[in-house]
Design brief:
204 residues, mainly beta, Phosphorylase Kinase, domain 1, 2 domains, 14-stranded mixed β-sheet, 2 helices, 14 strands, elongated
């Protein structure tokens, strides 16, 4: 099952506005540039729930690499990666060029079938942590039980600092998670809890 890999962009220093040309479209397209990649304007959404649903649907259709900006507090703008894009250079001079510092990636796990709940052990903590496993990687549960808008905001802050993360849909809202590259699986003696109600196992 495909998973959306999204860049959550919160300020203009993370991307550059531009226009691009793609092979199958005659007109130039509004776009943003993140690093060496171009993303064309795809669609605007009024709220976070509609945005989350669209991200999951697009990933299932094969459009996995996306970006999200939030120009106002009342909506979101989605951008789709264009692998064959060329920057459009018209007669007008380019506007102000912002430095581009793209954030780390955030996975959108919109279906519980896309991950497994588990416990992990990390080198710098004595107690095990509640986590999710996706594609052989472990993601510790940072904040569970969130509304979609809260999940986007918190994940954007974390990925903006360079932390690879994930937003997982659970039975009690969304959970923001952080990739733990040094984690190992841990089998607790007590029954495992879901990301909605994280609880550490009893001390040994």
């Amino acid at each position: 099952m495909s998973v959306a890999i999204c860049k959550l962009l919160t300020y203009k220093g993370q991307y550059t506005m531009c226009h691009i040309k793609v092979p199958d479209v005659d007109d130039r397209l509004s776009a943003i540039k993140i690093g060496n990649q171009y993303y064309s304007l795809f669609r605007r959404f009024e709220n976070a729930e509609a945005t989350m649903s669209a991200l999951d649907k697009l990933a299932r259709q094969g459009n996995e690499l996306l970006a999200l900006t939030r120009p106002t507090n009342n909506g979101y703008v989605m951008w789709a990666l264009e692998l064959e894009a060329q920057v459009f250079r018209g007669s007008r001079k380019d506007g102000r060029r912002w430095p581009t510092h793209g954030p780390a990636s955030c996975l959108i796990l919109g279906d519980a079938k896309q991950y497994h709940q588990c416990y992990i052990q990390v080198p710098d903590l004595a107690q095990p942590m509640v986590a999710l496993r996706h594609d052989e990687k472990f993601y510790s549960v940072y904040r569970p039980g969130l509304e979609a808008s809260e999940a986007f905001d918190i994940a954007a802050q974390l990925t903006g600092r360079g932390h690879d993360g994930a937003i997982a849909s659970t039975t009690k809202g969304y959970a923001v998670c952080l990739w733990e590259p040094e984690a190992t699986a841990h089998e607790p003696e007590v029954a495992a809890h879901t990301p909605d109600t994280p609880q550490a196992p009893k001390e040994q």
